[in-house]
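User: Can you recover a sequence for this backbone? Please restate the input before giving your answer.

Assistant: Of course. Working from this structure:
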């Protein structure tokens, strides 16, 4: 459960408002922190950070701000060296609102610093988030023209400015991917020309990630970027961009295990950045490490709210962290906490209609579908003011909810609405691939509701095959849906195969673990059923915070499958007995006696 305590000292990431030009530290103040984070914060302070190389600086607006170690020499006046590097550090943590302000301040202090306008141009393009709109493209090109008008004093600086100019120039005539690819090529040449400039290599790696073709399933750009970054990471373990971009490079089911080291490191490098607190949860989510994801995103929300109190930009960043929180809470039996997040988003100050369009649709839809509240999903309403792309989420959820409630007619109507919905590119929340997969999922469940089971299975198999090669985060996997469909069609052995495949790609998902246990049980594989039920109970803390019927059944079924009496571990002592096997071993309180029994008794039998 979420609990709050008062922390009367300044938080790790306290951020000053002076843009780095003053050495005055921010004053300590009260901040609210979730109790789950306290030990992590203490541990982070105790461990400290690896000493940076001599030519790198830890950048702060106040003495307590930590954004990582950056070295980016320029020909600008010495008085703006550290503020400029702070701007680069902000760029590397995608704090674009603040980096733009920082570079504007640098330009004000040194009007002859052409690179300040390079920094502004870099702040208007968010390569891994969204494509810049017309206004951002105009602002970016204007910054490039100012940089060129001033004239950089070194060839290296002129090359940096020329590289970003390639992206903004003729934006009305060239499509986004072509310009992003051209920028990546320019950065590749710059990095090769200045092999000792690690910033060039790091920005080149980011450019590769930002120019990856959307339907590329080989992750060629990701692998190339990762190879560059791993070399720099070994030499610059305190650089925020390296750890950050490694996480992005490995953010897919196939490569995610390789990103765990960077994920563990990034929040320690730049604890003042809300995005640095959140970003590790991309890897944690891929690996099914739900409590790690929860702690990461609680820290991100706290950091965002603290920065907002300091009148800094990026208030909407917390919505992204809340997105991951809702997903993680639902996977580990903390649905009441997920519900609180959904309710809280309505009262967050400073949010625009565009900020709230996605969470107002996605959060309730996910909550209803993940909990199998089919009638609630079928009754979802479209909030006022949401984009056409987000309206599609409601029709998708309603079609599935109605179909699984047995209301084929309503499901068919919602499916037609979904099929007819065409949103302009700037309002498309999901990639073409993901939108098409959701459409196929809705069609499959409508077919099932209409008594066409084989057709439904065919549609979901096709959707799952497409999704497996590039599984989306925070999704309800199509292959998991296929497993549930096969259970409905009384094909438990085939369902088990699908659940197990889904779990390899998306580990520790609640419904996949329960579905695998149920399918194994119905297929007569009691040992495998007990194992999946035990794992579900383990990640849900034995159901201590949930009344989901699946957990009740898992406890009962696990007992029947294993012959063991299942009870929560008490006072850190796990007791069990069966057929002469009797042990008493200290175990974490969150494990169930069944799991203890299976491990210990199997060892005794062996």
């Amino acid at each position: 459960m979420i609990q709050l305590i008062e922390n009367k000292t300044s938080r790790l990431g306290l951020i000053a408002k002076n843009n780095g030009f003053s050495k005055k530290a921010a004053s300590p103040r009260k901040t609210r922190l979730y109790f789950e984070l306290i030990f992590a914060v203490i541990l982070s302070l105790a461990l400290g950070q690896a000493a940076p190389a001599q030519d790198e600086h830890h950048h702060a607006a106040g003495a307590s701000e930590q954004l990582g170690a950056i070295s980016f020499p320029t020909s600008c006046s010495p008085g703006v060296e550290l503020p400029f590097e702070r701007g680069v550090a902000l760029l590397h943590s995608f704090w674009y609102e603040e980096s733009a302000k920082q570079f504007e301040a640098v330009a004000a202090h040194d009007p002859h610093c052409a690179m300040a306008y390079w920094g502004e141009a870099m702040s208007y393009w968010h390569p891994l988030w969204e494509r810049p709109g017309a206004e951002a493209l105009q602002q970016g090109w204007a910054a490039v023209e100012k940089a060129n008008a001033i004239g950089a004093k070194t060839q290296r600086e002129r090359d940096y400015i020329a590289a970003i100019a390639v992206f903004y120039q003729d934006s009305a005539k060239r499509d986004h991917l072509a310009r992003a690819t051209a920028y990546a090529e320019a950065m590749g040449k710059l990095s090769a020309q200045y092999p000792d400039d690690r910033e060039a290599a790091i920005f080149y790696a980011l450019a590769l990630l930002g120019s990856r073709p959307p339907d590329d399933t080989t992750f060629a750009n990701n692998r190339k970027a990762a190879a560059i970054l791993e070399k720099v990471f070994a030499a610059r373990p305190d650089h925020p961009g390296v750890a950050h971009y490694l996480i992005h490079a490995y953010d897919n089911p196939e490569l995610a295990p390789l990103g765990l080291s960077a994920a563990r490191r990034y929040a320690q490098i730049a604890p003042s950045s809300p995005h640095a607190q959140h970003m590790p949860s991309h890897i944690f989510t891929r690996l099914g490490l739900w409590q790690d994801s929860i702690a990461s995103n609680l820290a991100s929300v706290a950091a965002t709210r603290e920065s907002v109190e300091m009148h800094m930009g990026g208030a909407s960043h917390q919505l992204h962290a809340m997105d991951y929180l809702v997903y993680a809470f639902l996977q580990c039996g903390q649905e009441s906490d997920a519900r609180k997040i959904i309710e809280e988003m309505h009262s967050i100050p400073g949010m625009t209609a565009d900020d709230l369009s996605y969470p107002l649709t996605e959060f309730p839809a996910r909550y209803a579908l993940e909990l199998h509240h089919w009638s609630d999903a079928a009754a979802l309403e479209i909030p006022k003011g949401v984009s056409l792309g987000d309206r599609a989420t409601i029709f998708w959820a309603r079609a599935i909810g109605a179909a699984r409630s047995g209301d084929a007619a309503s499901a068919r109507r919602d499916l037609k609405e979904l099929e007819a919905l065409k949103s302009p590119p700037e309002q498309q929340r999901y990639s073409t691939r993901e939108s098409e997969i959701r459409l196929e999922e809705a069609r499959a469940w409508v077919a099932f509701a209409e008594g066409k089971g084989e057709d439904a299975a065919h549609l979901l198999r096709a959707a799952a095959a497409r999704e497996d090669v590039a599984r989306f985060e925070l999704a309800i996997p199509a292959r998991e849906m296929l497993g549930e469909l096969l259970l409905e069609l009384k094909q438990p052995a085939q369902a088990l195969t699908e659940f197990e495949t889904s779990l390899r790609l998306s580990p520790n998902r609640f419904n996949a673990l329960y579905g695998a246990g149920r399918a194994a049980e119905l297929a007569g594989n009691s040992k495998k059923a007990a194992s999946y039920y035990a794992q579900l109970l383990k990640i849900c803390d034995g159901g201590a915070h949930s009344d989901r019927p699946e957990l009740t059944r898992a406890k009962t079924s696990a007992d029947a499958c294993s012959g063991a009496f299942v009870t929560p571990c008490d006072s850190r002592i796990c007791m069990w007995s069966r057929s002469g096997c009797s042990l008493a071993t200290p175990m974490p309180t969150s494990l169930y006696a069944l799991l203890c029994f299976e491990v210990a008794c199997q060892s005794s039998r062996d």
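That completes the design. The beta strands are 4-7, 31-34, 57-58, 69-70, 573-578, 581-586.
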